[in-house]
Description:
By secondary structure, chain A is an all-alpha fold. Chain A has helices spanning 20-50, 55-79.
Amino acid sequence: xxxxxxxxxxxxxxxxxxxxxxxxxxxxxxxxxxxxxxxxxxxxxxxxxxxxxxxxxxxxxxxxxxxxxxxxxxxxxxxxxxx
Amino acid sequence: xxxxxxxxxxxxxxxxxxxxxxxxxxxxxxxxxxxxxxxxxxxxxxxxxxxxxxxxxxxxxxxxxxxxxxxxxxxxxxxxxxxxxxxxxxxxxxxxxxxxxxxxxxxxxxxxxxxxxxxxxxxxxxxxxxxxxxxxxxxxxxxxxxxxxxxxxxxxxxxxxxxxxxxxxxxxxxxxxxxxxxxxxxxxxxxxxxxxxxxxxxxxxxxxxxxxxxxxxxxxxxxxxxxxxxxxxxxxxxxxxxxxxxxxxxxxxxxxxxxxxxxxxxxxxxxxxxxxxxxxxxxxxxxxxxxxxxxxxxxxxxxxxxxxxxxxxxxxxxxxxxxxxxx
Lengths: 83, 327
């Protein structure tokens, strides 16, 4: 009689990444950079308009970095759910 | 088979395989391919006529925006619009042909046309077992349009046949046809359509109130003033990322082909044409799959990103419907 453990490696289903993950990985790197760029450009434009340099540029940098981190979380949270 | 086991009347060497494909043989073949390619490149560069340096200035034509060929009232018709028109006509003709000549047992062309539908249909069905029928047409349309628009750039004459246009007061030669994806207007418009698509799917799945709450109200609520700008920048980055990636890849490919045509000749530009054919398909697939992924993320709020799978009979019914959609 076989006494194989239910979670032994050979019993686990193969975890092949679905095709849509290819694009997701390509996209994530680009969005990290773009989020910071959008934040900085938005901040510079606001500063030029309101003549408050460098207040909004610094806020834009912080928001851009936050958005970049959020992009990772947005993608990763789905994969972190217990299966 | 060994030599000893060969037939009596047979030459002993006939039983030996001509070559064996093992790891060493593969590495040798790769090394030989690299040497041959390097040799071809060197030969092409060496044989290139000296005056091509003077010609290269006129051969390499780089314009970031589409050039206006003529005006229809207030609308400037650009060369990228001609490229989009060609892609649309090709797709419409293929759809017309497929709808008239579809058979239960597909022929070569029908099978070729059904391949993306089968592949993307399977991916969408795996992600959205209950909604795939509604999502499939949009994703397939985006994929096929981007694919054909990318491949328009590989047609002979595209980018090389020029017409005289007046630009900023002086005459210039502009290409008659430009691939649509090499114009940021096209890719940005497509990204905006994808954005509307996944936002509308988010609203459909979670309701307007649920979607707005998901997007603009943070958990815990006192983090909302911090998280709302982050959400907005994150959403904007999706549109720009989608459009800039496609534009950058196809535009860079066009420049690469123009430079290779100007600097080299014979087989070298053909090699890069082959590479561009691969990149064109990959970029179309990436655009379509990312739109699908964004739809999945947008619908994940309350209803769950991945639909619950159906029972076997429902899957069978879906398969039948997928085949029917293909026909």
